[in-house]
Amino acid sequence: MELHYIPENKSELIFAQALTDCYQPVERRLQLTRRCLAVFAEFRNPVGIITKNHLVTRDIDLLRELAAHHAVEVNISVNSLDNELATRLEPRASLPKHRLAAVEALSLAGIPVGVLVAPIIPTLNEPEIVAVLQAAKDAGALWAGMEILRLPLTVAPVFEKWLETHFPEKKDKVLNRIRAIRGGKLNDPRFGSRMRGEGIFAEQIAQMFQIARRRVGIPDEGPELSIAHFRRPGGNQLELPILEGNRQI
């Protein structure tokens, strides 16, 4: 989670994002995310979630509390409807049908939920954009966003090896298309272009996504979360213990 210092009696949006999915399998046992959500619900502090896992539905009770105060949005990442491809891409994540089931469950519970089509891998899952958006709409998604694959730092050689293992016949085409989108390299860290890419192929993907999104009738933005209901429950604020060596003072 991206945690920010929140001044006393003030609120700030906190995002539990996909750099490390907050609903990994170990969450079933540790329940760290659930305990964080309980604190957010108690304080009515707005929170956004991005996840690939159906486990988010376990916490519908807390998410519903936050939704009552316009203080939550959930983004389910769905980048393919092909079980085999999805399993190869994200072996520890829920299958596409289970992610869409999570969208439906959250929607029926009155929790604002959208779909993030990411990462879009040129020529690999790119052709599925239209089908994914239609499935998202049918499941009850209220908005949809996208992101083209990024390969920062050590991710690039890992992805190249993954292509060699699973799609050797497509490896060169995929990598060349990524280079065309990333200014001749596998990664472009510049702030203005790293999320969307540049050039004709990036524009084609963006246009295809926007046309498909409008055709199925999904907005491109989620709700504006509110801090109006933020509260600091009664009692003294908890303080972290001060340690001197191994002794608490």
What can be said about this structure in brief?
This protein has 9 helices and 7 strands; from the N terminus they run βααβαβααβαβαααββ. With 249 residues, the protein is α/β, with parallel strands linked by helices. The protein has a domain at 14-149 and 203-232: Alpha-Beta Horseshoe (pyruvate-formate lyase- activating enzyme).
Structure notes:
This protein has 249 residues and is α/β, with parallel strands linked by helices. The chain has a domain of 166 residues: pyruvate-formate lyase- activating enzyme. 38% of the residues lie in helices and 12% in strands. The chain has nine helices and seven strands. The strands form two sheets. A five-stranded parallel sheet has the order 1-2-3-4-5. A two-stranded antiparallel ribbon has the order 6-7. Strand 2, helix 3 and strand 3 form a beta-alpha-beta unit. Helix 5 packs parallel to helix 6. The N terminus and C terminus are likely disordered.
Q: What would the keywords be for this entry?
A:
249 residues; alpha/beta; pyruvate-formate lyase- activating enzyme; 5-stranded parallel sheet; two-stranded antiparallel ribbon; 9 helices; globular; disordered N terminus; disordered C terminus
Portion in helices: 25-40%
Give the number of DSSP strands: 7
Strand content: 5-15%
CATH architecture of the domain at 14-149 and 203-232: Alpha-Beta Horseshoe
Main sheet attributes: strand count, strand direction, barrel closure: 5 strands, parallel
The CATH first-level class of the domain at 14-149 and 203-232 comes to Alpha Beta
Low-confidence stretches: 1-7, 238-249
Mean pLDDT: 89
Alpha carbon gap, first and last residue: 29 Å
N to C succession of SSEs:
EHHEHEHHEHEHHHEE
Sum up the overall morphology in one term.
globular
Biggest sheet: strands side by side, in what order? 1-2-3-4-5
Structural class: alpha/beta
Count of helical stretches: 9
* CATH fold naming of the domain at 14-149 and 203-232: pyruvate-formate lyase- activating enzyme
Q: What Rg, in angstroms, do the CA atoms define?
A: 20 Å
